[in-house]
TrEMBL record:
Transferase found in the keyword field: yes
Pathway membership: Amino-acid biosynthesis; L-proline biosynthesis; L-glutamate 5-semialdehyde from L-ornithine: step 1/1
UniProt organism field: Catellatospora aurea
Protein name: ornithine aminotransferase
Gene3D superfamilies attached to this UniProt entry: Aspartate Aminotransferase, domain 1, Type I PLP-dependent aspartate aminotransferase-like (Major domain)
UniProt xrefs under Pfam families: Aminotran_3
InterPro entries in alphabetical order: Aminotrans_3, Class-III_PLP-dep_AT, Orn_aminotrans, PyrdxlP-dep_Trfase, PyrdxlP-dep_Trfase_major, PyrdxlP-dep_Trfase_small
EC number: 2.6.1.13
Record-level Gene Ontology MF annotations: ornithine aminotransferase activity
Family label: Belongs to the class-III pyridoxal-phosphate-dependent aminotransferase family.
Domain of life: Bacteria
Length: 406
């Protein structure tokens, strides 16, 4: 390990600040290697990763099966565009359709693109199948949502940082309170084509809706002929202890929107999955992406789905998550005001009288644990699902010591 005097971190942080737009406020750590739950910085310090790339690293850093699939594919074929068909495409789509219980899959790259795909498909379904008058389609979303950063998506954000000065905004969205079924029922009208929701709101601070909300949304959407679009980009793929967060209420949405962990922490892979009636509205030329569904993405995605098919990661998240939540709840009243979440995913509210979420994250970093604050007082904990019991216990102890609870 380098001494403080010849540390490489300050100059590497400076260089990154000097040459990039300041659209993020990262912790001052410069990572150079990673394996499983652990990352190493340019000075040789090791940290336990409790963010997992916002759940893009559910299977840990460089999972051997995923790395092997990527290597093998790199040596054969990386890109064709969708102008041609490649030999990894059908298997990826078929396996993802089976995992979601849907008929058809449309792969894209980033989460925001998958959400854009969902919006476009829902509108087209509204005009062509439901019979909404042209240009009138309405999509209902929740307050405090986070669905990505495109101009359309930020148009219905309630976060001023995300939205201000990026107008003019895309019309056609109505915002209702998250978790409020009555407000949703009132907002649905004849022009409503879809309800777009995160089954657990991640960026808002890991907000879990009241029990019965997701099944209530399902029932409302079915009875009013409205599509339920579930943004499982952060909550899905084993993060909450089930394959999808909607599974906790045995709900099947009309569309699963996926991203992040679908690319195994190696490549950006996102997708939507829906019935033939819904996704079948798209015809050649109406939507697409040069890189969406490329061979490398599909090869890695196939291995991701195989990992999920074992059920091991869902089980680990459920069991270890219960343990993590129990340990975190013991901190309530001792520097922590609330703990929310499901599986290996928690939003921990730090008592503002003790310190900010940022200060807590920086102190944790100093102790070898990487977590990230959100909305001032909350820190999000989302370790890779390959984490071990003793590592969770160690991490919660670091948090307890940082906030003075230990
Ligand atoms: C629920 C949800 N939807 C969409 C996105 C956007 O994904 P991406 O950053 O890959 O565009 C995110 C990213 O945090 C997310 O959490």
């Amino acid at each position: 390990m380098n001494s403080i005097v010849d540390s490489r971190t300050p100059s590497a942080v400076d260089a990154a600040e000097r040459y990039t737009a300041h659209n993020y406020h990262p912790l001052p750590v410069v990572i150079t290697e990673a394996d499983g739950c652990w990352v190493t910085d340019v000075d040789g310090r090791r940290y336990l990763d409790f963010l997992s790339g916002y759940s893009a690293l559910n299977f840990g850093h460089r999972h051997p099966a995923l790395i092997a699939a990527a290597h093998a594919q790199l040596d054969r074929l990386t890109l064709t565009s969708r102008a041609f068909i490649h030999d990894q495409f059908a298997e990826f789509c078929q396996r993802l359709a089976a995992l979601t219980g849907q008929d058809l899959v449309l792969p894209m790259n980033t989460g925001a693109e998958a959400v854009e795909t969902a919006i476009k498909v829902a509108r087209k379904w509204g005009y062509q199948v439901k019979g909404v008058p042209d240009g009138q389609a309405k999509i209902i979303v929740a307050a405090d949502n986070f669905h990505g950063r495109t101009t359309t998506i930020i148009s219905f954000s309630t976060d001023e940082d995300a939205r201000a000065d990026f107008g003019p905004y895309t019309p056609g969205f109505e915002i209702v309170a998250y978790g409020d079924l009555e407000a949703l029922a009132e907002a649905i009208d004849d022009y409503t084509v879809a309800v777009l929701l995160e089954p657990i709101q991640g960026e808002a601070g890991v907000l879990v809706p009241p029990d019965g909300y997701l099944s209530g949304v399902r029932a409302l959407c079915s009875s009013r002929n409205v599509l339920f679009l579930a943004d499982e980009i952060q909550s899905g793929l084993a993060r909450t202890g089930r394959t999808f967060a909607v599974d906790h209420e045995d709900v099947k949405p009309d569309m699963h929107i996926m991203g992040k962990a679908l690319g195994g922490g190696i490549v950006p892979v996102s997708a939507v999955a829906a019935s033939r009636e819904v996704l079948g509205v798209l015809k050649p030329g109406q939507h697409g992406s040069t890189f969406g569904g490329n061979p490398l993405s599909c090869a890695v995605g196939i291995e991701v789905i195989k990992l999920l098919e074992t059920g091991e990661y869902q089980q680990r998240s459920a069991q270890l998550g219960a343990m993590m939540h129990e340990q975190l709840r013991a901190l309530i009243g001792r520097g922590v005001t609330a703990v929310r979440g499901r599986g290996l995913w928690a939003g921990v509210d730090i008592d503002p009288g003790v310190m900010t979420g940022r200060q807590a994250s920086e102190k944790l970093m100093g102790r070898g644990m990487l977590a990230k604050d959100t909305h001032g007082t909350t820190i999000r904990l989302a370790p890779p699902l390959v984490i071990e019991e003793d590592e969770i216990t160690w991490a919660v102890r670091q948090l307890a010591e940082v906030i003075g609870a230990a």
